[in-house]
């Protein structure tokens, strides 16, 4: 890649708790090359530990429970290519650890709950992604994650979900409007609960120069893929790219080929893309294509390609 932009490319991935931010971040970093990426979690900027939040009756989704001003400052520093001393929040114990010295690489992936909470932060990003999965899916993912890796009981997770019923629409959901791409994973008909067979819907806003998908619609079978012009919630025109969870291997490979040809420098990483769980090797075509699309935009941003 002939990089024309001198500053690090900042990619934002924002969404509610357990919306798939970490899974997407890992996959995109693999596409771009982990040696070229700095990945930070903006949830490390919590102001209070878990016990203090509980005492105050405040959730981590509330901007008042986070050092939003320091996060904004750090994003500006990273964009200028300067190192930061980033706080570290231990999600399993709900406590803080020693801060971490972080120096930005060519790409910085910032994922978390409140990455677009202020105008100052939003101005730091080259590409902004918002994850908006089907709520039933998100609850399932959160229950699994929090009980297996964060030390919660099922009852504690359910209680937390109930406490956050107001905070999510007040603080997290409004950030959707600032994203260049809104990504929604949802259950497919007959998927039997398999995360490898989820449908995905991409709302592509004209704030980014999206790839030309017309070669995929050349009169051959379009099974598993749909592209149309639609209206977003605010009435503005958007392109909507839908990929079915039951898309055939052959059809998915054709789409992947088109996207990989746009970022040939990352071709050697192809086998790792779309993995739900690296340990068991499960792969999702919709996830792979989503990771590739986001990676494509990061590369184009580095080359100085902008929307007209």
Explain this structure to me?
- There is one protein chain.
- By secondary structure, the protein is α/β, with parallel strands linked by helices.
- The chain has one domain (9-302): P-loop containing nucleotide triphosphate hydrolases (Rossmann fold), CATH 3.40.50.
- The protein contains nine helices and twelve strands.
- The strands form three sheets. The protein has an eight-stranded mixed beta sheet with strand order 2-5-1-6-7-8-10-9, sandwiched between helices. Strands 3-4 form a two-stranded antiparallel sheet. The protein has a two-stranded antiparallel sheet with strand order 11-12.
- Helix 5 (135-148) crosses helix 6 (154-163).
- The longest helix is centred in the C-terminal third of the chain and has 18 residues, at 285-302.
- The protein is globular.
In a few lines, what is going on in this structure?
The protein is of the alpha/beta class and 308 residues long. The chain has nine helices and twelve strands. The strands form three sheets. It has an eight-stranded mixed β-sheet with strand order 2-5-1-6-7-8-10-9, sandwiched between helices. A two-stranded antiparallel ribbon has the order 3-4. It has a two-stranded antiparallel ribbon with strand order 11-12.
